[in-house]
UniProtKB/TrEMBL annotation, chains A, B:
Keywords for this protein: Hydrolase, Metal-binding, Zinc
Pfam annotation, one family: AstE_AspA_cat
UniProt domain Succinylglutamate desuccinylase/Aspartoacylase catalytic: residue ranges: 4-193
Gene3D superfamilies the record matches: 2.20.25.160, Zn peptidases
Family: Belongs to the AspA/AstE family. Aspartoacylase subfamily.
Database matches in CDD domains: M14_ASPA
Superkingdom of source: Bacteria
The AstE/AspA barrel-sandwich hybrid domain, residue ranges: 208-289
Cofactor(s), names only, from the UniProt record: Zn(2+)
Name of the protein this chain belongs to: Aspartoacylase
Classification lineage: Bacteria, Pseudomonadati, Pseudomonadota, Gammaproteobacteria, Alteromonadales
Amino acid sequence: MAKIEQVAVVGGTHGNEFSGIYLLKKWNKRPEYLEREGLTIHTLFANTKAHEENKRYIDCDLNRQFISTSLADNSLTNYEQSRAKAINAELGPKGDAKSDFIIDLHNTTSNMGPTLILLQSDLFNRQLGAYVLAKMPEAVIVFEDQVSLEEHYFLASVAAQGVIVEIGPQPQSVVRQDVLDYMEAMTQHILDFVVLFNKDEVTSLPESYQAYRYIESLKLPEDEHGERIGMVHKNVQDQDFKVLTKGDPIFTLFDGGEICYQGDYEAYPHFINEAAYYDNNLAMSLAKKVSMLTK
Amino acid sequence: MAKIEQVAVVGGTHGNEFSGIYLLKKWNKRPEYLEREGLTIHTLFANTKAHEENKRYIDCDLNRQFISTSLADNSLTNYEQSRAKAINAELGPKGDAKSDFIIDLHNTTSNMGPTLILLQSDLFNRQLGAYVLAKMPEAVIVFEDQVSLEEHYFLASVAAQGVIVEIGPQPQSVVRQDVLDYMEAMTQHILDFVVLFNKDEVTSLPESYQAYRYIESLKLPEDEHGERIGMVHKNVQDQDFKVLTKGDPIFTLFDGGEICYQGDYEAYPHFINEAAYYDNNLAMSLAKKVSMLTK
């Protein structure tokens, strides 16, 4: 892999996820927090208009607009679809990007703690996960490598390497100090790793480590008319990355009934009851636990 | 005090506080959950339009529009100002209301647990607080009796008696089962109390109990241009109703500094880092602990 030189640090991709937005403000006043040997850092506030309206987005979710075919489709012209093309021009273009690496900063209302989402499982990403975990033992490493980078719809997929820093729990439109501190620390560890990786000086990593791999998403219970008839079970609420096995209750119906997990694998739920996912009636994501090698 | 016969149970006064909205749906299908001897129950979904847009409000906070002078001011015509007049016609009019009692259901992003906010400290409210606390020991009773009912701007002030059920922590636009369960249980206890009070059968209350009285609100730190320069200190985050004494850090500045509490009384913060209060740059409310008598 070629050296990483051009790094984009992006906040405010969702306008009501405040940590990245406040950190960008801080770092723009004090760029020394991001500066690293051999790296040129570019910061980007991705959706200022949504932030001004204190919403996740104006017309549609910006962080779902970066599939290569969508970027090439000039009939997609709403606010976020247009903004995605502008960001692709600024940081990309995807497939031949001027940015070598993108760090996109997000919050979740779910109790996920400091989570690093990696889009590929090549040596760079596997070692990055191990490095962050070594520096921040409370971190959680999630691989969302179920599709190719070209098919990924995340902003971070515009560069050949991109990651998502996802910290919660934080309500929408709030700044929590603990969450802000985690986000800043994780971003710094990622940048430190890039410098070491460039110099081929990554050392002292364990042979392998425990991570998670995204498998599927579960919907909230609906009736035949598509009306929501239940909610996340109180046993599951806030229990992100705690195992679910077949027969565990996962939903409570408003009429008092329960629905149990019926999957045939040990599932690690995350993004549990994330506010923004109600748009698509999603209740949680499920992952499998995996052992990742650092060689 | 005359008997309470006409009771209004209100949800969705803020469109992104989901618990009351989902409970109204449930109760409209199963009215037996609210039915009580001698009471006529009227339910009201106060701001459906804001809920459809998944926002607290369209133009301004509906729960600040019920001061008598505002209700009488026909020059106030935006969406919530108009909606307040319609609700006042439906449940009121304030000062001579057809509703005898209003229960208004709210959520907060703050870690306040199941809180009952009482607008007056007459015998009915003092005994109601004691009764709810006896039935639900984890409840918190807060008196916001700093102004007369006429000057109160809350929806619940339209009737001669009105209370706010305020349960958190719950992010905006989310349903948590624990919060929903608390709200339903507290509402039922309140209705049970009203039946007993009507029949003069309230018994077995302690002579006095511990409650809180609202004193003032604190703003988030701003610079001379009105720009926010700090956040709630991590020591205070989630510590609703835990005492603050002079010298305790309450804000962390984005540049790393700290601001300490300078008040000359033992303050009990609540609504700490409530998302909706950022509009007015409010950081938290402060209360004093008080002993309330039940005679």
